[in-house]
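User: Quick one: structure for sequence A, then sequence B.

Assistant: Sequence A:
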Amino acid sequence: MAMTIHVDIVSAEAEVFSGKANMVFAPAEMGEVGIAPRHTAMLARLKPGEVRVQLEGQDEQLFYVSGGMLEVQPHMVTVLADTALRAKDLDEAAALRVRERAEKAMTDKTSDFDYAKAQAELVEAVAQLRAIKKHRGKGGA
């Protein structure tokens, strides 16, 4: 039997996933990190993107996180995010609307323009759309 690591993905609203995995990939601010069983302890900030969880004998499951914290212990990974959703639960139409609105706000600068907010919305929308695209490419997990 292969070694596994326990994974918890939690948002401000609810626990999104809890279970055993062979490997976890997460979008840390310093770049994507891969976590295997017995990984050294680590604490990292996450940027908006997808967390991939490889389950034993199954396809990997995809989750979107809006950012947050990643805590790694030798036998446990915890993802704490403001927003965390399964890729299959993302709303593509809403993400497209947010992306368009943010792109428009960044090009139509007005006196009450908040560039940082528009940029953050754009980053989150693009990350959601990537997660949706990957989820569809795998045939839905």
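Sequence B:
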Amino acid sequence: MQNKSFHIGLGKKRSPLPAILLFIAVVIAVTACTNPFAPALEEDGGGQNLLGDQTTVEGVFQNMRYAYIFKDTLIYGRLLAPDFTFVYRNYSNLDTPRDETWGRDEEMFSTTGLFQTAQNLDLVWNEVIVSIGDSVLADVSRGFNLTVTLSARDVLRVDGRVNLRLRRAHPEENWLIERWRDESNF
């Protein structure tokens, strides 16, 4: 005696509809998901992108603030020209203070260390004191307040001014910081 239930359904044509629906559901699910390893850029509460348009001088300052607040070395590195120079006044010898400089690699190393060490960073840009230039070269002097929270009991406040030289090859390209002269209380 044969088992009739074994033969039921054999030889019948199946409808492709369930397979097509499954395929469509998978495609929709995959395209609707966000990748947690490549999240979207941060947005403020109003859905606005926090990154500035780096083809504007103000966009450079907005992106620097973003880089500090979110401790984002990738965004910070995109602000610096390949021949970037940081200049600061060394007061270790009060009789003969002198300007010291370092390049892009040292700046990235130093900033990465700051970003990794600080629990929180808050950079506030103040008034623009001087802004001169043209469509491919700009010199901007601007006040700032930087709060560096290392721990609940160790908070540093740095106030001062930056003098930035921004450059780009063509007016439609992004501005890059070529020189940064620090004039802060730190």
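The mean pLDDT is 84. The two ends are 96 Å apart (CA to CA).

User: Thanks, that's what I needed.
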